[in-house]
From TrEMBL:
InterPro entries in alphabetical order: aa-tRNA-synth_Ic, Rossmann-like_a/b/a_fold, Trp-tRNA-ligase, Trp-tRNA_synthetase
GO CC terms, sorted: cytosol
GO MF annotations, alphabetized: ATP binding; tryptophan-tRNA ligase activity
Keywords for this protein: Aminoacyl-tRNA synthetase, ATP-binding, Ligase, Nucleotide-binding, Protein biosynthesis
Protein name from the UniProt record: Tryptophan--tRNA ligase
Catalytically driven reaction(s): tRNA(Trp) + L-tryptophan + ATP = L-tryptophyl-tRNA(Trp) + AMP + diphosphate + H(+)
Pfam families reported for this sequence: tRNA-synt_1b
NCBIfam families hit by this protein: trpS
Amino acid sequence: MSKKVLLSGIQSSGKAHIGNYFGAMKQFVDLSETYDCFIMIADYHALHSLQNPKEMKENIINLLLDYLAVELDPKKVVLFKQSDISEHTELTWIFDTIVTMPYLMRAHAFKDAEAKNKEIDVGTFNYPVLMATDILLYSPDVVPVGADQKQHVEISRDIAEKFNRIYGETFKIPEVLIMKEVAVVPGTDGRKMSKSYGNTIPLFAEYEEIKKCVMSIVTDSSGERPENVYAIHKLLRPESELKKIYEKKAGKYKELKELLIEDLEKFIAPMRERRKNFEKDIKGALAILAEGGERAKKVASAKMAEVREKIGVNVY
Ligand code: ADP
Ligand code: TRP
């Protein structure tokens, strides 16, 4: 029997942080043992917030190196880039004709942007539809994401069901997969770790940078345990062990932070070294991406042919 299929992706919009690792990348690696995986670099999704070609290129290559450094094995995983597969944008248009504006106006990302009174571009508004095509073209059984992306996967389910109702059974309905214990990794200020909040610990940080980030963790002096330090620390050690250490060193915030720095360094150093090795052969890394693109294209174009047939534009 063939394995179940998994698809996920990350937007190539900046430097990876440990929230991306525990919330997304680590799951991709762990699950690649059990599933046939498609892992994507969502570069078109990054376009609405990044309009600088040099930076765009750098970000794509950086995310590719990140994926390789966390040991996503290209033999087990189809590693590809969204913009290599034109079917994603083609299917977006077709979905646009069945998705209503009031429905998309209920999406969190749109509501957040609206609350900030931003002049919202159509791409931001339509973001969940492009994401639905990313998913549905590959008929995955599961889509692992961080908790913040759950609604987007639900939207892709709704779109698949609606298309199937109108045109007949075409798309598999995907399940969202969220690892509960790491659902939201907190940042140095206690809010969700995110590039946009500037509260991250970069995944490939050098020792000095780790030190600086940890020392900047906001500690609340109301209790004995510095909760923001503890919340990050528990990603690196079992809680049973950690609780004892934090009880023994109650109130000693500096010592606890120093221990966290050491634990982060132990965890980051091997990945940082692997990434440096891949950096020496960018051409080789890009060849892996191009090859993954060819494999993804085969799957996407077969599904797209089925869609064209279903909607009636295939007259030849
Ligand atoms: P950011 O918020 O830093 O811009 P992205 O939106 O690019 O991060 O997220 C990439 C992936 O990492 C997504 O699957 C997202 O759910 C996951 N992720 C991002 N931040 C966190 C976090 N703090 N905790 C858990 N998962 C996260
Ligand atoms: N929107 C996702 C994020 O910001 C990235 C993404 C794009 C994605 N397409 C996807 C995730 C398809 C899972 C499946 O993290």
